From TrEMBL:
InterPro entries: TLDc_dom. It comes from Panicum hallii var. hallii. Residues 293-486 form the TLDc domain. SMART domains: TLDc. This is TLDc domain-containing protein.
Amino acid sequence: MGASSSTANASPEAHERREQETLASAALALPLLRAAFSRAATTASALPDALAPPRASFRLPGSLPPPPPHFHDLLARLGPAVASLFFTDGAAAGAEGDAGWVPFLRGFNRCCARVSASRSLALLLRVYAAAGAPCGVQFQPDEGGDEGGKVVGELAPEEIAVFLWMCWVMAWSGSAPKVAADDGGEKSEPVVVLLPDVTHLVLAALVSAGAVADDESVWGWEISSGGKGVKVQEFTSWVLSTASGLGNCLSRYVQERLRSLAADSTEENSVSTDNTTFDTSDVYLLTRGRAWAIALSLRNKLSEKFLPGSVIGMDTEDLLYRSSVHGKGLSRFWSGVEGYNGPMLILLSAFSKGGAENVDSGRRWVIGVLTEEGFESKDTFYGSSGFLCAVHPIFRMLPPSGKEKNFVYSHLHPQIRVYEANPKPVGLAFGGTVGNERIFLDEDFSKVVVRHHAVDKTYQHGSLIPNQGYLPVEASVLDVEVWGLGGEATRRQQNVYKKRENIFSEQRRKVDLKTFGNWEDSPEKMMMDMISDPNRVRREDR
């Protein structure tokens, strides 16, 4: 009763402070926020500097054109832009003690409190425009103030690419290790960081908005080619349906920067080059850009598995099978995935038949399948969940439709051959029905057939390859990769399974010669006795 009366008699300032602390504690621990606030309040530039990304030199791989000149200027103004947009009420301008604590929490909650995905994307676009990006985005404040305003305007293809790179840098800054300042205060040269290729994401946004037709024009499309832009409302719709993870970029970024500020005030805002290689080349089908696109599209815990791979590349220990290394064929594939009872990503690169010029012109496409359980040798479909995705040249994620559960079909030749009037196909399949699969990969891994989504009720509708019509598309397979996503525990279980199977195989190979050492009990003597006197009456020994 005393507590209720004290709460009722609390001043408005105390009530607001308690409300802001409760809201902020849902995102970050209050002691950590206290430590970050005390260090941010030392000077007026402490918080903008802390909210800036680590110092690094960003560039694209040699085969791609460089990012626009204003991209590095945008990153340099990112910290001040976040501070000025959200922490404007004297939160860090030398306001020490309780005087600036509530404004600091208020600014933190503006950008990190849980809000709708569209609201989070609108805040991210505000940061993008406030950092000085030359874009056509405008803001229309409502009657209650500018925070709930409407975002309007248009984004050109190059502006979408720069926006996506800015979001990737935000995700990268959380994984970049810090380096302390030298005794002399000298800063090391910034490490070179390769930006991911986001062409497939930009193209997906343009095709979704109708700015680029989903036909032959998709092949060879480049960001630098320009073209028609996308309205902010259309871009928002595409993000919510395909790349919903973009809405979390700002909240994650601010939390990571404040966590870094609270951890050690002597850290420099740069990245360490020791034992870390950010200049990684994308040598696998699962490039960093493709891993990031998959991470943005997923809304479950598997998204966290792809985020580190989108920054520094996937862990090669998770590569279960690669046809260019382990050999093509279902048996080679099975030796890599057998016993792995966890989620897996299968990527398949192919080119449609119609002449060798398809390969030379770069008309190779990549599709993927995300399964949430291990493979089994069955002549029927099985599985509980999964995703299909078009990966290159355009990105699409096709989640389950909920109508059927024909997620995976993996049928090997049986060890004991028997006659079958209607033998089931041997190979891998995803979606559709037996004999009419949406994706079917033959046992030699030389041919893949992709059918129209009308034959499939398991996965949602959508084209997996550009310019896909109603007829089945038969293509030649170039490469197949399988990545395990179950973590170290699942890998250990698979190793135990393989060791046990090897022991059983060795036992089956061994022959007990003692059973052939006694002539009286041998089948050869029995046959000889029957031939010598077949009419002799024999009594069974009991």
